[in-house]
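Quick entry between incubations.
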Amino acid sequence: MLGNFTYANPTKLYFGENALDNLKAELAQVGPNVVLVYGGGSIKKNGIYEAVLGILRECGKRVAEISGVMPNPTIAKVREGIEIARAHEADFLLAVGGGSVCDYTKAVAASVHEEEDPWEKYFVRFEEPSKPVVPLGCVLTLAGTGSEMNGGSVITNAETKEKVGKVFADTSVFPRFAVLNPRFTMTLPHYQMVAGIYDIFNHICEQYFSGTDDSTSDYLSEGLMRSVIHSSRIANRDPQNYEARSNIMWSATWALNTLVACGKSTDWMVHMLGQGLGGVTNATHGMTLAAVSLPYYRHILPYGLAKFRRFAVNVWNVNPEGKTDEEIAKEGLAAMEAWMRELGLVMNITELGATPDMLEKLADVTIILKGGYKTLTRDEVIEIFKESL
Amino acid sequence: MLGNFTYANPTKLYFGENALDNLKAELAQVGPNVVLVYGGGSIKKNGIYEAVLGILRECGKRVAEISGVMPNPTIAKVREGIEIARAHEADFLLAVGGGSVCDYTKAVAASVHEEEDPWEKYFVRFEEPSKPVVPLGCVLTLAGTGSEMNGGSVITNAETKEKVGKVFADTSVFPRFAVLNPRFTMTLPHYQMVAGIYDIFNHICEQYFSGTDDSTSDYLSEGLMRSVIHSSRIANRDPQNYEARSNIMWSATWALNTLVACGKSTDWMVHMLGQGLGGVTNATHGMTLAAVSLPYYRHILPYGLAKFRRFAVNVWNVNPEGKTDEEIAKEGLAAMEAWMRELGLVMNITELGATPDMLEKLADVTIILKGGYKTLTRDEVIEIFKESL
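Done. Structure below.
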């Protein structure tokens, strides 16, 4: 822990099968006008919509709705949501869904009382809110993004094909509370479940694969990664295993609430490649990360050899005896690849709709960060996407 | 993560060599009457007292002081502090010191506006505050107890020789903020440093050695324990190593802010034995834990064999090949013992002033908890203290 940093995370987490029981007490603390935000309507099929609406009615709230929030929420949809929240004079925004719905709700919450258009302010200039943020809460139905306990918001500009992540430092943009019931994630198709699991795992990798200093954060990361690997194997065979799904849900929250990044540098280049790909193909976020990860990590391995060696031994139980550091490190990535294939993750960008003629466009929309073991050139970005085809 | 639980921890952590720079902004948010709480005066020797008082003056605060808070703060001293805080019409209590000062400040903060005596209310009946709690903050000078980010308060009744821990659930008793500058811990004598390190390690053990369910919390515990072992070895050889001391300080906070207990049962029997011993001998808290730990863990090993085996492999890198579970588990405790001896911890209660004629009294004041792998009988408590002589 060499750097100076602040950790502040006021989000209250209600976890477990009875977690929704706490919604009533939370709603009692906010004003009467609530906007319910959700996605494509799956919450109407599994009963969560009715349960939440019942509690809102019981609390005497006036409810408006923003529905149809898409997996990669667009800035146009954010603008539409701002108008709905303004018209309803919203006191509170309640996100019911996965990370996309939660990300989207933050973007709306931070913009209702702002005059300027949110794209320029938050996703181009990366500013903080200058006006009061409408408070928000979240009932989570998909484990993965960690959006339930942080200030992150990833929004896509459909016109420019840019997918940009803003991390709000202002904790008033964090959900005040998050209801985490692992059972709510169990109706998800297998494809979405494993995409979410890889998203979690990669969040930890992004924070782990950077820096040469010795920090407790990396030890916590190793613990979280081991838990995710262990529980994902159980959930992959038996998606209805509550214990495994609960560990995955909890790991997701702690993988991206700033804890494992405290006092250290971070990478986030897999997310930049994945978001570039997501902006162009509209593919599922976790799968975009899975498809580019191994080509990227194999490319940077020589620059971060000590950390990839540590990853192999501490996370994948690679026996280092009689092997060179490079052999150990590569064995770690091979173990990671075997696990990814076991889960059925998408291992190339072709399967996600990318074609060789898109390489230049992908490089255009990929933001290059400097936190990892090697700052990529544009040519290297193209090379990695090419190897991912 | 099988249980239903709530995680809520609003304490803001300022970490690093420049952490004290944030005190001014925090003080700007509280009223003018501040009570400064500290211990035996070591903060006057190392300059921290002057630095903090300078900032208080700069912020225009009216300052009263409670000094002389002892390592095992007494309820009589709490009553004295309540009177000082009342007379000063305290808006804020600022604890500057280690866990004892912080624990003490919480007990005072929760009692200033209460009519009833705090011993009965909090340390006998374990109630929550019924009146507003005076807000508090903390500048930490000793890593160990984790009191800087939780609601725990351990107070001793000198008359009855009872040392009792109350864990406030009400987050208004948590410090609003904690200033964590690892350099502030560097003037500590070696004895206090290693006692603090063992306190941290044992906090994690207490939460780890309980339950048979599979939870992410145990994986996080393993990561934290590995970090503490690694950094403690560096700090033991080189107490001025900032990186090692910073990892220890950060691990201390996360070892006891409820995170690694989420969704699982916990033990805390080593703390009960240690607190019994501390109440009778007034010995340093971390050393009381060290002196009773191995006799206790060896006693309960057969009842929690699977977890002690896991501990050996995942925390101490014991190679399990060709060994029985019991052999592996015992090898783990042997590795732990070697590490404890390397640090120079007190390994028996005789060295802390206990004598055979105290065994009955020790059993009298030791509270028996039910969360561990074996609920002790009174005879077993005596046996463990006897083995610790």
